[in-house]
Please model this.
Amino acid sequence: MFSGRSLNIYIFVTDVKGKSFHMDCKMEKSKIQMLYDAYTFEAVDVGIDEFRLDGSPGSGEVMNSNGLISGQGVSEITYIHIYECDQFSMGIFCLPARRTFPLHDHPGMTVLSKLLYGSVCIKAYDWVRGETCSPRTNGLAGTAIDGIFNAPCEPSVLFPRSGGNIHSFTALTPCAILDVLSPPYSDDLGRPSTYFLDFPIPSLPGYAWLEEREVKLPCDLVVKGAPYLGPPLDVPDDDLC
Model:
């Protein structure tokens, strides 16, 4: 969770239509609502064209003739890296229909997510209270989210011990999710990404036993990279980032 120290982020971007987005956010837990309220990006504002497709759907032709990422052309899970510093990272996951990003955690992290377009099924858990605060590899977890989300919808936030910190998502249609992680993943600092299997407990509805996968990275998980084609982010070069 956030300490008493604030993280001041100033982001100013101008999209292709000329309008501006100004976020002056204090990333204390008590001020997370400020960022939540400012999280109004649309796909085109971050360089993604949800509709225009120059080839066939899922053809793998990621960039269209407008010079934007084609949401309909993505054939594999695709990650668009936008920005990262010691305090936070920002990126976008684009998924073709019927692709699943498997169950994984966000140790000691707060994550703000925005579904930019499409429909997605999310299953999320939190460790049962009373479990150790250190990163877990197995244990009892309670269901926090189990449902379908359709864009446009409100952004969501998860915290280190609540809100569905361990989650998976399955694209029901082509979709894109913009994520801000604070702090970002770091193996060296004890924030690795761990993948899990879940085993629902019939006698205990709403709960499941989670176990770390034997293979650190699921063999069926394919994530490709794509360039960020949106407007630049203006982030101060100071001692915070």
About this structure: The longest helix spans residues 32-38. Confidence is low (pLDDT under 50) at residues 1-31. The two ends are 18 Å apart (CA to CA). DSSP finds one helix and 16 strands in the chain.
